[in-house]
Amino acid sequence: MNRLAILCRLAMVVACLVSGSAAVAGAPRLKGRAVWAHPRDAGRTEASVKAFMDLLARAHVNTVVMEVKTASGVFWPSQRFPEAVVSGYREFDFPAVLVREAHARRIQVHAWFFDFAEGADSAVVRAHPEWLARSPEGQPTTAEVLRGQPYGMAWMCPARRPGYTDQWLVPLIVEFAERYDVDAIHHDYVRYPGDLAPDTYCFCDFCLKTLPTYASYYSEARPLDPLLSPMDRPHLEAHWEKSPKVLPPNWNDYSREMRSRLLLEGSFFPGGHRDLDYFFYEYRAHQIARFTREVAEAVHKVRPRIEFSAAVFKNPVQSGRFIGQDWRRFSPWVQYLMPMDYLSHFGGDFEAHLELLAESIQQQKAWARDFPHLWIGVAAYQLYDEERRPLTELRTLVSKGGDPEAVRAAFDKVSARLLTLAPDLHAAVATYLREPKASADLAARLSAFQAHPPAGYYPPERLLKTLEVVRAQDVEGVVVFSAAGLTSAHLWDALGRFFSQ
Ligand SMILES: [Zn+2]
Fold it and tell me: Model's pTM, two decimal places?
């Protein structure tokens, strides 16, 4: 080893020692330490925003992803879209105070937008119902029923131009970026609706016309040319079509439902596979990725250094198919990927979910290799389903005077913790078991306990164990959902301990 090499080796050892001692001194190792938050968490006064920022700083959070546009409207005094401002946020310039106080504590701010999901009665839906995404029957998502309940969200068509995307959403985000010096714009609901009808949207008039053009189902230049495809080959789909004629000659006479059905169930080649759904999904994934590009280009004109983050589903291959969210296509328009690796997005119980989580993160690292930052999303409150569910069962049973055996079974699951943390409540349930009859009073007490459980009811170990699994995958950051969940489950101290290591 020559002298230069020895010096280099020595320098590396010194660097290691220095960084090692820094870690011992409490410098957090995880680079991204974020929480998702709602304006409610920060309140509507300067003092409350400062208090919230102090809470985050104490927990070593260095990035807050704060909602500024939800299904309810926008949380800043928008001049361009005053009708969309949530009441109470005209007078108080919430993002201005938030950014100032966050930056004073070296906390970065990602401004969180619901992109394509709107409230059923939101300002844009009232003003422009023609921008809503439509089913084959011409209905918006608010006409759907999901698990017996009316579906409350109004999904907008991402493709239509001029429409919601270029006339409302992009200008709204640009106005926000002009006004506020946030570090990033955060995309959420950057997709098509999936929970109610993955194959249904969008068949608005614009999409019925545009999808066939996008997928080149005919030539606009020479629409009357005959189909040139030789039909004698053994593998029809393996060849390029020279002059596709996918639409039937009387396409213009088709009803909306018939057009929609053909676009989903038809074949590209006469007699070929029923493969047109492929182009339908491709069109949707393209429209969502196109939006991430268009908004980034527009925002960079007014604030060149701003970055973008996105809350995405855990598997882009599947979400590309089901909700038009193939997030691999968001590069380079999104820098921070935040997959929502929530317990509810995996099967099995808590322990099973940890194994699936580790596997999923390894896949995500491969899918996300074109992105500078991968921060794993964890839903803290969801980790406690096993603690929460027996309480819900117990409350329901007690309110109806339910079968004592069923009450006892639910009680057994929480009895030990109740005895330690809420002995009065424990005694009340024990009394009920001796003389079971419907008790609204006891149900209300259980409900209140559930809403505000004492510290320790939700064991912090579950959160810590989950975060350790994430960190063991060697990722850059973690983003926790949500501030309100951390507060109600008394988990801030645990999160702070984890983030400080
Ligand atoms: Zn559409």
Answer: 0.91
